[in-house]
Structures are given as C-alpha cells and as structure tokens.
Design goal:
alpha/beta, globular, single chain, three-stranded mixed beta sheet, 267 residues
Length: 267
C-alpha cells in the first residue's frame, strides 16, 4: 500500500509564547499535517499544555516527538495521551520511545531511577497497553514509536500505527532501508523519517549539537536538499524505494520547506 505524503514540524517553545503561537499558525497555513513537541524537561513547557494550545489555535494534528518513557510512570503518560486525544477530538498522535542518547544522565539529574534499555522497552509496552485500556472501544489514539533495536522494531510492528527509526545522521541509506524492510515484513505501519538537516543547516532539537554536515555520507537520509524541486524528487524516491511517507523536520525550516509541502502533501 502506498500511503499519501504528510509532513510534521517539531516546534519547541524557545521564545516568547506569542512568537511561538504565531509560528504555529504559519505552520498550519502552510499545509503541514502535524505540530510536534519534544519531551525535554526544564528547557521548555511540558508537551501536553503546548500541544493542547496548538490544537486550540489551529486544525493541525498534534503529537509528541517523542515522550521518553523513563521520565514518568507509564499510567500517567497514558492518561495524559488519552486526555489529549479527547480534548483535541482525536487529533493527537502519541509518540513514545525509550529515551534519547544520554537519557541516563538526565534521569540522574532528575532523581529518577536509571534502568536498562530492556526495562525501558517494557515501560513503552506498558504505556501503550494502558493507553489502549483508557481509550476503550470508541477511541483509537495513533501510536508513533521511535525504535532502534530488533526487539523495539518487533514491538512497533505489533502495536504502533507509525514507526520512526532512531537514526544517527551518519547512517547509510542501505542500513536504513534494511531496517524499514524488516519492519514491513512484520506488519504494515506508516514509516516516518526524522530529517534534521536541510541543505547544510541543522535544526535545533533534531540532531546532536556537534553534528558535522560536511562529514555526512552523500546518501544520508538525515539530509534533504534545500532546493525545493530537488527535495520533491528525493522525497518521492524515498517513498518509492524505502516506504517513507511521513517526513518530520524542524520548525526553523518550515517556511522554507512550505513549497515542497504544497507540492506533495496528500499525494
């Protein structure tokens, strides 16, 4: 099945809230499908209130990109996700993963237990199970899982609506293609691609701050061209060859990338 293209924007709140609200409205007016908030404690407001605000301002879908499972009890995360689904009339997408690189140091700073990756994956499973129980038969909150290892990929193929691979910018196209084909062999989720680099610019919150764009492989999937026509061609190639139909980029690129969204969204 070939899914239509859609585009999401990771939009952390790093400025005056009124400036952020104006940006959210521009993103909605440009044809993007989804406004996404990262889960970064103490660096911005909590994702839930941000996303509820964005959903009230616009008709955008909203989502977490992504909740870090070790930061809060599973049931509390599921309750917040279910509540956002209800309050947005089903426009919330529940992104969750086991935590970004360096999450162990962050957990220690917050006074939270540091647990191994296998237990973090069990937290993800428990959170999704609790969300499905809260949703009941009349609501289905879409789940987006950020995955890496084979156990996470297998779980995502079973329970997620959308899969995003937690990739490093230097990884080859061949390796990412292999991961995508393995997931598609287990199920048929939507495949999302997190794109932190447009041209030679790196979006905040989307890649490590020391990312060296000059050192990226020529075929890196972490990069899209800054020329709109070339970007359109490359995005179509990535869907045809690998299966990616949902592309997520940083808010600093949203205006520049709007012509690409206008050309491809929904096709």
């Amino acid at each position: 099945m070939t899914r239509p293209f859609r585009f999401g924007v990771v939009a952390p709140l790093r400025t005056d809230p009124s400036i952020w609200r104006d940006r959210v409205r521009r993103i909605a007016d440009s044809g993007y499908s989804t406004l996404l908030a990262p889960d970064v404690p103490r660096m911005q407001p909590a994702p839930g209130p941000m996303l509820a605000t964005a959903a009230a301002l616009t008709d955008l879908r909203v989502g977490t990109w992504v909740y870090a499972a070790p930061l809060r009890p599973a049931w509390m995360t599921a309750w917040e996700a279910h509540s956002l689904s209800l309050l947005t009339d089903g426009r919330f997408e529940f992104g969750i993963g086991t935590g970004r690189p360096g999450i162990e140091d962050e957990l220690r700073e917050l006074g939270l237990p540091v647990i191994p990756p296998s237990e973090r994956l069990a937290q993800v499973r428990g959170t999704i199970t609790a969300l499905r129980d809260l949703d009941g038969p009349d609501l289905h909150t879409p789940v987006v899982m950020a995955v890496r290892g084979p156990k996470a990929r297998a779980l995502a193929a079973q329970v997620a609506d959308t899969v995003n691979f937690a990739l490093m910018p230097h990884e080859s196209r061949a390796e990412v293609t292999r991961l995508a084909h393995e997931v598609r062999a287990l199920g048929d989720p939507e495949l999302a691609l997190h794109v932190p680099i447009i041209g030679d610019e790196v979006a905040p919150f989307m890649a490590p701050p020391d990312t060296d764009t000059a050192a990226m492989p020529a075929d890196s999937l972490a990069i899209l061209p800054d020329d709109p026509a070339a970007a359109v061609e490359e995005i179509q190639r990535r869907r045809e060859e690998i299966g990616f139909s949902y592309f997520v980029l940083g808010a600093d690129f949203a205006d520049k990338f709007a012509p690409v969204v206008a050309e491809l969204a929904g096709r």
